[in-house]
Design a protein that fits this description.
With 304 residues, the chain is mainly alpha-helical. It contains twelve helices and no strands.
């Protein structure tokens, strides 16, 4: 393990063919290591992960790439909350947005949506499944993500905006479908944050002779304007693509507690994402009921 840590810190992604999987396994070993029986291993891993979090960008990218495999590996054992807490600590150690944060946000949002399409198991497996659903949503809600508005390169801006758009679509759909209240709350919050990082269609710059035309790239940036209900702003094509990918993911053997043999979850009729309009309507209804109740308690005027 000590040799693996040294190679990863020196070479980064080029250390192994699947360096992220190696880091994910080292993360699992960090919690499984007995400090009394194997003190050297425990001490080595305790130093390795903070060093990786403060390493150059190409090394830090491994933390984002290993986050989902590490969560999946810890899904069916106790201690998932500790793994999630350490991942959040490592991913937020640096200043600014997490390296590959948008890609990780999309992967976690797709994971949450895939989990919401299948029924939660019962018994002991149900406890682990609920912890995993809440853990994935919690990590997703705490990841600092780079805004597409801060990206200067036009091609990278379009690519980043596309990833963020898919991520907030998946987060909204997962928040509407999940049965876990804590996860629904985290997903609804992260959906609004991801949407705020997207950019609306700007006015394309005037074409300059001899330079590439960026009009098509600007046309690819399309985000709905601010509104009360997030679910009404979803692009139908993006929604369909995100849901189709989530169903394929749920029917595979990659996501814990899902698979082709697990029954599909029932679709909720009412969205779980709270809106300002619905809250205002509820408060007005409550106020009107109170007025009616107060009127009924008033004594009738005497008739002379």
């Amino acid at each position: 393990a000590e040799s693996l840590c040294k190679i990863i810190l020196r070479r980064g992604e080029g250390a192994f063919e699947a360096a992220a999987s190696v880091v994910a396994r080292l993360l699992g070993s960090y919690f499984a290591a007995d400090a009394q029986r194997r003190p050297r291993l425990a001490q080595c891993l305790a130093v390795f992960f903070p060093a990786l979090a403060s390493a150059p960008e190409d090394r830090r990218r491994l933390l984002a790439d290993c986050a989902l495999p590490a969560l999946r590996a810890a899904a069916k054992v106790k201690g998932l909350s500790r793994v999630a807490a350490l991942l959040v600590q490592l991913l937020t150690a640096g200043e600014g947005a997490t390296t590959n944060g948008a890609e990780l946000a999309l992967a976690l949002a797709n994971e949450s949506l895939a989990l919401s399409t299948k029924q939660t198991p019962t018994g002991a497996q149900g406890t682990f499944a609920k912890a995993y659903i809440n853990g994935v949503a919690r990590v997703l809600s705490l990841i600092p993500v780079k805004s597409a508005k801060d990206e200067l390169n036009m091609a990278e801006k379009v690519e980043l905006n596309d990833v963020l758009t898919k991520a907030w679509h998946a987060a909204v759909l997962a928040a509407e479908r999940t049965n876990e209240k804590a996860a629904a709350k985290d997903l609804a919050c992260v959906a609004e944050r991801l949407r705020s990082h997207c950019v609306a269609t700007p006015k394309p710059p005037a074409a300059v002779e001899g330079e590439p035309d960026e009009t098509a790239a600007y046309a690819a940036l399309d985000v709905p304007m601010d509104d009360d209900d997030l679910s009404t702003q979803l692009n139908d094509d993006v929604r369909e693509a995100v849901m189709e990918y989530a169903r394929e993911l749920a029917n595979s053997n990659e996501v814990p507690f899902t698979g082709s043999k697990v029954k599909d979850a029932k679709v909720k009729t009412a969205p779980a994402v709270p809106t300002r309009e619905s809250r205002s309507r509820a408060s007005k209804t409550k106020a009107s009921e109170k007025l009616v109740d107060d009127d009924l308690r008033k004594p009738l005027p005497k008739v002379t």
